[in-house]
Amino acid sequence: MDRKTRIRLWGLLAAATLYAFGIFFCGLAGETAELVQITLEQSVDAPAAEAVFAQEEKEEVPTGFCFWGETGNQVVSCRETGASAQVTRILLSGNPELMGAGCLAWQDGCLVDEGTAQTLFGTVLCGGQLLVQDGISYRVLGTVSALRPTMVTMARAEDGNSLSRCVLSAPAENGEMLGTQFLLRAGLRGTVVDFFPLWALTKDLLLLFPGILLLSVWGYLGRDWKKLSLPGILSGGQWWLLGRTVLALILAACTLWLLGRRIVFPPSLIPSRWSDFSFWGNWWKGQKENLLQILYTPQGNRQLQMLLNMVKSMGNSTVAAMLALWAVRRRDNADIADRG
């Protein structure tokens, strides 16, 4: 094996490794990306959120949801160790499992991130410890993965109108419609923040790497089809070329079928009337406004982690595709040189 071949194989190995990381981060993002996110025009308090919860339970098909909000620069302390830390406090009302805090559904207390737990208690194994925030004691139930110092609790009446966002347990591809219906039932006003286009792009980019490999094999098998003579006068060697060409066509059809089955189109990208030429301009305008909502709206821990995992997945899958394309082109150039 010559040096150029080894370099090409190492490039493909690196591409496959990056692709595996892309799949991993895409899976992590998918745990949150398929939820519907709503930004409320006017914040609500815990009693109002509980009233919406009671009303929603009366629906024939109730929608699971969790109101949430956050307040920054909150000081928490531990009386036993005397240590203190500054955190962002996240308040929940509804189904806390949708915000990754399921244990709060059946026990009163709080969750903290691992860094805060280490600062306050000297260990991340802090279940059962007590911390104090604004004169109120909370029993720590465990730690939560977070990108910043965080404390997660259920909202109380004394917290006031602190719940400014909502997460719905509903298919994100129909998020705008379902979110609007939920707001109407609850008597609230707000904006549905659609993460589904980014999620669709993340999944579609994962198709680049296998698509390039399959198309490369297709091109390799069918590259010599021009050497074929008429079927009636095929020589023994040309029967092998004919078989390779047929196999290349079958592989090409399978590639197109696979990509067609796996590619994700946001429903908002499909016009109701193809003759409506203003649709695409309005769609791009809507996506720009939605992207600004995502970028400029303060995000909770799960949303921040979801966006970070999407970016990691897209970055890994794109670099993997570029490496695969580079390795394939080097092989093609080498084959052309050999035939020349």
Structural write-up:
This protein is an alpha+beta fold. Helices cover 51% and strands 20% of the residues. The chain is built from 9 helices and 9 strands. Strands 2-3-7-4-6-5 form a 6-stranded mixed beta barrel. Strand 2 and strand 3 (84-94) form a beta hairpin. Helix 6 runs parallel beside helix 9 (301-339). It is globular, with a radius of gyration of 27 Å. The chain starts with a helix and ends with a helix. Residues 336-340 have low confidence and may be disordered.
Give the topology.
Elements: H1 3-33, E1 36-44, H2 46-57, E2 64-77, E3 84-94, E4 110-113, H3 114-121, E5 130-133, E6 136-144, E7 150-154, E8 163-169, H4 175-186, E9 190-193, H5 196-205, H6 208-221, H7 236-262, H8 278-296, H9 301-339
Parallel strand pairs: 3-7, 4-6
Antiparallel strand pairs: 1-8, 1-9, 2-3, 2-5, 2-8, 4-7, 5-6
Helix pairs in contact: 1-5, 1-9, 5-9, 6-7, 6-9
Estimate percent helicity: 40-55%
What are the segments in which pLDDT stays under 50 over at least 5 consecutive residues? 336-340
Count of helices?
Answer: 9
N-C termini distance? 20 Å
Structural class: alpha+beta
Name the beta content range.
15-25%
Identify the strand order in the major beta sheet: 2-3-7-4-6-5
- Taken in chain order, the helices and strands follow as HEHEEEHEEEEHEHHHHH
- The pLDDT mean sits at 81
What is the β-strand count? 9
Largest sheet: 6 strands, mixed, barrel
Molecular shape: globular
Over all CA atoms, what is the radius of gyration? 27 Å
